[in-house]
Design brief:
The protein has 265 residues and is α/β, with parallel strands linked by helices. The protein has one domain: Rossmann fold. The protein is 46% helix and 8% strand. It has twelve helices and five strands. It has a five-stranded parallel sheet. α2 links the parallel β2 and β3. It is globular. The termini are far apart.
Length: 265
Amino acid sequence: MDYSKIFNNLPAPGQFPACFAFSIHKAGSTLMHKMINEVCNAAKIPAVTIPDKLFLEGFVGGEWEDDPDLLALITDGRIYYGWRHLPKILQNHQHFLRERQSVLLVRDPRDALVSAYYSFGGKHASHRLPDKNKEAFVARLEANEDLDIDTYVLRSAKNHLNKLLAYQSSLDFDRVLLRRYEEIYFNKRKFLGEIFDHFGLDVPTEILDQVAARNDVRPAEEDPTKHIRKGTPGDHREKLRPETIAKLNALFRETCRWYGYDLDA
């Protein structure tokens, strides 16, 4: 496919190797990508989000994820952010990916799946709509609107696990800054500084300070209609039945231990 009309104003590449910012839906991904974007705009660092741009253009079904034509957009000299899973085009481009620095933000999948229910399932779906092809995205949301939270979470769990496994098998973790949701939630300034240090990019302290302070939002009370609904870790204990949590623990236990989460704690 010809993506030139969609990506017709890519920033000119800088003099540094490509860097990548990865996460998973509802792991603090929107917050991390938003802060990276704001830092890059202020510090004039070339950066682009391919997934978010395609979503707003109405690509809501993942039809681009194995299209090799997109690889022409990925060169050295830019930060590539917005990734909430590792698409096939990057899994198949591992030799490029493994030689470059990346950050990966993960979260306790039990909390992430609960948060996903409020964004994509149930009657309070709060996810942003694309600028184009809204009807197709709304139809996907409506397909879940009658599911209770436990059913939604269990149906979505295997897909979430596969995203974690794809990152684990495809990235070189000697070059990955692995961070967890709690670190971005409680200390955004430290988190941001670590990202750009890891990328080897000099950013003025005042820019990092301002972006972190502007985005340090922690709701005083839960609001299911907002993107940042609650935020605090451990929410699954209040929202899910014990038997649902037990099933999730069994499914995720080994992988989560690798990522630094002890589900039996």
